[in-house]
Structures are given as C-alpha cells and as structure tokens.
Protein 1
Amino acid sequence: LGGVSDEHHARHERRGEQAVPVTSLRGPTTPTESGRVRRYMLTARTSTIALSSGQQVTAWTFNGQVPGPPIVAVEGDLIEVRLRNADIESGVTLHWHGYDVPSGEDGVPGLTQNAVMPGEEFVYRFLATQAGTYWYHTHEVSDLGVRMGLYGTLVVRPRTAPRTEGVDLTLPVHTFSGMTVLGNHDQPIEQRAAPGMPVRLRLVNTDNTPHRFALTGTPYRLAAIDGNDVIEPGEVSEVGLRLPAGSRYDLVFTMPLELDPAGNGEVRLIVDDRIEGLRLTPPVSGASQARTPTKAAKTAATPSPGPSGPVTSTASWPELDPLAYGRPATPPFDPSAPADRRFTLVLDQGLAMVNGRPAYAQTVNGQAFPSIPTQKVTEGDLVRIKVVNRGRETHPWHLHGHRVLVLSRDGRPPTGSPLYVDTFDVRPGEVWEVAFLANNPGMWMNHCHNLAHADMGMALHLAYE
Ligand code: C2O
Ligand code: CU
C-alpha cells in the first residue's frame, strides 16, 4: 500500500507525531469461497443529530448519524470499510473492538497507521471470521471521539444458522451530555413482538463505566458474552446484568405466550435500574387481542408515548456472575499448562512522568503511557497476565487482537462456561488472571477501556518479536 504523502507527513510532524509506516500485516482482499464482499463507506464529520424525542445534539458522526451505520455480515464475508474524514480536526481511525483483525487493520494511530486527517481516507479490510456482537470506534483521542459519537455496531451472523424469524435488536448504550441513550433513543424504544416469537437483544456498552441491565416480564438466557457463545446458558430471571465498559451481552428469550395476571405480556429492558430502554409488546390485532378482551390488556398493548417508570423495581435484584454461569467445558488450550510468558500489571493512580514532567496519571506498574515497557511475545506463546487493581476506580482491561480466557478472579477459578472476553472489569482491590494464545502477530494496544483513564496513561503495547 503506497502513497503516504509528503503533505501527510508534514501535517503529522506539525502535530509533533512521528509518521508511522503502514504495516504490511494487512487483511485479505477477497472473501472466502462462500462469502461475499460487504462494502461500507463511513465519512466522519461534525453534525447536529436528532434523538428520538426530537432533542438536537451536536455530535461527531459517521455519515451524519450516531451510532454510525450498523455493519452487518455473515461469517466468511469480506468486510471492506472506506473511512473518510471530512472535518474532524483531531483525526479519526476505526478500531474493531473485540475483532481479531490483522494488526494493520486494527486502527491504532501511532502504532498501526497514522490518524486519518481531514481530507484523507483509509480502507480497512478483514474477514468476518467471528460470529457475534462487536462494535467499532475511533481510536484517535478516543475518549473524546467516542463520547462525541464516533462509534457503531458490528454484527456477524453464523453462516450455518437458519435465517431466524423474530426480533434481533442491537442496542448500543451511550451517554450523551448526561443522558443515557440506546442507539439514538432517549425515550423507550417501542417494538411489537408476537407471543412465542424468538428475541435476541445485543447489548453493547460504548461508555467508560459499567451499566446494569435488567429484563422484566420473561425468563431469558445470556447466550453470548463479548461475541462468544456461552455453553448451555441456563434460564435466569430477576437478576441484574453488569455490562463492563466496551463489553457485549446477547440475551435471548421467546415472547411470553400468555399475558401475566396484570394483563401485561410485555417485556421491558431496564437500564441502571431507573431507565426504561425498551418495551416489547404483543401486536394489537389478531389472536392476542381476541384472547384478552380486558381493558387492562388493551391498555398494555397500546402503550401511551412518553416516559414512564419501570413497572418493577429491579434495584434489589442480585447480580448475575458470568464466572458461575453456563456449563464448564474444556477450553481449546490448557490453562494449567506452564505459561511461556507471564506479565503482571498493577493498576493505580498517582504521579508519573508524562511528556517529561510529573503529572497525575492512571498508572500501570507505577508508570504512564508511553513509558510503560512493551510486553513482548513470540507467536505460539501461551501468555498469562495478572491484573491487580490497587486504585480507587474500576478498570475495564482490554487487549486488542486477542480474546483472553479468564483463569481466576481473586484466586477463584470460574465454575461455569469457559469465559472468553476482550474486556474484563477489574474492580478496586481485585486481582484477575487471564491467559491467551499469541496467534495474531503484530503490534497491539493493551489498555483500560475507561478511555479517560487510557488518555491519562493507562495503556501499553504488546509486540510480537
Ligand atoms: Cu475499544 Cu483500544 O479499544
Ligand atoms: Cu481504568
């Protein structure tokens, strides 16, 4: 890939950056035999967007919308995204959060590419090899950029799965000037779903801090975590789901066949125990109405618009522990095997050298980016990482390019389905041990996904030697 222009170099030098050689570790240009090419063009620009209530918000957008266009593919497809920057002065890139793309497609400015400046473009290509729920976001001034709206969802469907009848909703949660929104909805999303219909809700946390979700009106299963299927997920109800920053949960259930005694028969998604995010109600016409001629049922089937509080208080519901959920199984590599490399990351806050001066920072082993030593691995290594949180805040730890297997949390191994994640929430005082196979050569970021913390130094590189 040629042509990083002189003008481009000059511009980056003016910004005090080194121009980065574009890595040769790029994605393929053709899909697999059974796949097709999914082409998208995303133009980053400042726009005023309207939330569902009509409220206007100034945002940084892809194609004038927040979230950006949903990227959808089937396993085996080639995803090709042309990113253009119209007017985002600080620059923009696309990072495929949770997707193990080739290093040169990973979208990290200063590491795998230069930031795309106004008037420039960059084309990303990678194979849709992982089915599941993911997301994309800018990685240049990522705290500000994501907060302002430069993100969207990426959903890859399994090639083998039959086309499902039913409801399949991708719901990125985000905070816009203090308001919690799902997609661009600042009011409950109203969706019709017939009794018995299968539903999949794909929850994506695009914020810096965890959100707590609860589902009322039906038992359900937590079918996937960070895009990875849970093995034999059991049915749960009346639990809270804490979704770490950057992570995704897929919830599945069928719409209730019978109306409950209160005449509801509806399912609600409650965010942070106080916001009604989504209301799924049976269609007004047809069998369900004929079967339920009561006034209460009719009222429930035609909800009045406008905000309404949750019907059930979910705040007292216990939190589901993903480490104790689903059926245990043998992971694809033996986590008890001796590790080829071991790293310990102690997370804290305090003074550290930043740009040659002491500054208040979020630190890893007492240092701040870019002074934290790079983790070096060799292809094929089994790598163990211990993350210790000595700080006062939760640190959702995120590794690019690899999924990690959770070995233990505070010394206790998981008792449920093997837990593969790209982001894990290390709360104050906690110690997590994870392992991964070094099978994706290149240069990678390893950072706190509270992006404000990453900006304050809590980030380092992982490099294959
Ligand atoms: Cu979603 Cu480096 O981040
Ligand atoms: Cu953090």
Note: The pocket of copper (II) ion (ligand 2) is lined by residues 362, 393, 395, 448, 450, 453, 458 (CB under 6 Å).
Protein 2
Amino acid sequence: SLQCGIVGLPNVGKSTLFNAISSGKAEAANYPFCTIEPNVGVVTVPDERIDVLTGLINPQKVIPTIIEFVDIAGLVKGASQGAGLGNKFLANIREVDAIVHVVRCFQDENVVHVEGKVDPVFDKEIIDIELQLKDLESVAKKIQRVEKSARTGDARAKADLAILNHYKETLEAGKNARSLTYTAEEREGAIGDLQLLTIKPVIYVANVDESSMISGNEYSEKLRESVKGEGAEVVTLCAAIESQIAEIEDPEEHALFLSEYGLTESGLSRLIKASYALLELITYFTAGVKEVRAWTIRRGWKAPQAAGVIHSDFEKGFIRAEVIKLPDLVQYRNEAGVKEAGKMAVEGKEYIVKDGDIMHFRFNV
Ligand code: GDP
C-alpha cells in the first residue's frame, strides 16, 4: 500500500500525530500482507460511499482502503552531512511515496524549541535544506556521468544534461525539485533513477494549539503563504487533540467530541484525504454479499490495470468490465435493477476507471 513519511524538526508534534494515526481503528487483520513495523501506522481512508454501499448490500465483510504513515523522526540540521542519524533517515524518506511535513505552529513555554523560537517558515526551511543538499549530491553525481556521453555528441545525453543542470541550479537556489514542471517523459532520462527527495509530493501539517484549531493562527498563515509557490497543501490541526480524538472508538461519542470543539471532521481525517488526493489516487469498489471492498488505483488507469490490483490474473485474462455508478445502485436498489434500467455499462480494455465506479471484471483464466 501507499506510504507517507512524517518528517519535521524535533519537538514539533510528530510523535503525537503519529500516535493519533496508530491508535486509529484500521483493522490490520484485513491486511495480512502488510508488515506492520513500530514506526508504521495504518489508517483506513474515510469514504462515505463505502458506508452507502454497505447499507445497500449488507455484506459479510467490508474492506476500506488504507494508507500507511511512517514516523521518520530524527531529521535535524546537518542530517545531509550525517548529523544525528541523518543518512539513515534520509534513506527512509527515499522509500515513501509522499511526505507529510509537520511544522510547529503552537506556543508552549514548556516545550523546548530546538531552534529557540517558534518560526514555522524558518523551521520548514531547515528540513528543506537538508533534503535539498542530499538531492544536490545525487544530481551532481549524475551530471558527472552524463557529461562524458554528452561530450561525445550524444543528443539524448545533451538533453538530459540540460535538465540535470536546471535541477542543480534550482536546488542551489534553495528551491525544491518539485518546483520544476518537466513532464514525466522529460524527467525520466535525466533524474528518473535518482529518487530525489524534494520531488516527492508534500503536505504541510501546521500543528497549532487547541484554540487555533479551526481558525488557524499567524504561524499557520505564514506557513501557508510561504508554500504557495509549491502548490502544496497545508492541513491545520492540533496534534494533541487529534490523539485524544483517535482514542474514542464509539462513533457517537466521537462525533460529540468533535462537535464540542466545533469540528465536523477530525484533522486526521482531513490529512488522510489530502494525502490520498495528493497522490492522485482514486477508489473503485467491488461489491458482493460476501464482501464490499474499496481498491486504490491511480487516476487515469485503464480497466485491465485496475483489475490487476485485485489479482495479476485479472489483468492478464481481462475480457471486459461491467460498471455501475453508485447513484444508480442507490436509485434501483440492486444490480439486477440497474441492469434492467439499462444503466449497467460494459466496458473494454481502453476504459479509464473513474473514481467511485463499482466494477465487476470478467476474465479468462
Ligand atoms: P516530535 O519530537 O516532533 O515527535 O514531538 P512530540 O510529538 O514528541 O511533541 C513534543 C512536545 O510537544 C510534547 O511535549 C507534546 O506534548 C507537545 N505537543 C505536541 N503537539 C502539541 C500541540 O498541538 N500543542 C501543544 N501545546 N503541545 C503539543
């Protein structure tokens, strides 16, 4: 499944947020193939549609989609030079699909700030610079290799070199690699093998105190302003309260607690949804009396590739897909009703699966 790495300076609230994540109610038993390590928290992706489906079908089993969050603690100033457990943590970041960057936006005299004062933009830049320095190292090494081929007149190498140099200048200017807008094809030859850290999609979490949970505060505003150019999302929450919310299992009590704080949704739920959207993930469903299940795919995937998420045989032997839309299922009550009304679509190999599709794959074995 997909992994988001939680990074940030010490004492900004990473562990508190991570605790909220790992005390969530993801039923690990449903996911026998994911190895759960102590620094990995699994959460289900909140999705109202699966509740609607469950209400209609009343299946024996319901399996929502999950995201994993990895606590990558220990990133400090100088990490790229090996300070702290620098290199180990940077290697951990290389493996995740996206970064959740927690920034301290709360005042608390009892909580030491490693840099002396609360300054979210400065804090964010400390982390960014460490990641940029590491990326610069990777880019410089690659440039050395490509320069040789470029000198022999290789056109491909020349084009790659130009792009590599652009990344180098960008990183040297203190900007993240994600701020460049090359297409995937253009990037592939130049940096495709480098797994740059600052090119990974990022969400900033402004960890504010309880009183600023809804409105945010001057710190979270400054942070939001500073990341505008990156097109990154900022999720404002209070990690301390989130960890309390996550403890409450009873749904009614949960809702009551939220409403007492004037919230309709937990910050964690917003963070999970934002992560899902950031990764351009969408969900399709399979729905039967035995099991209603949500499956994660990337936006733009065609039907056979989407089927491959269930089993590789589904992809190899793909014949066609029967597709139902949830509103039709709600209107006509069941599959037979949808079919009778002529609302069930039969789609082939080229069909691009849409978010929320209810799919039934037909395949050869
Ligand atoms: P980490 O080092 O980034 O993992 O930070 P921790 O999660 O351990 O938090 C550091 C300290 O800040 C702890 O004493 C937390 O209780 C406190 N803390 C975390 N989140 C908040 C918050 O939202 N408000 C306040 N006032 N304190 C917080």
Note: Confidence is low (pLDDT under 50) at residues 26-30.
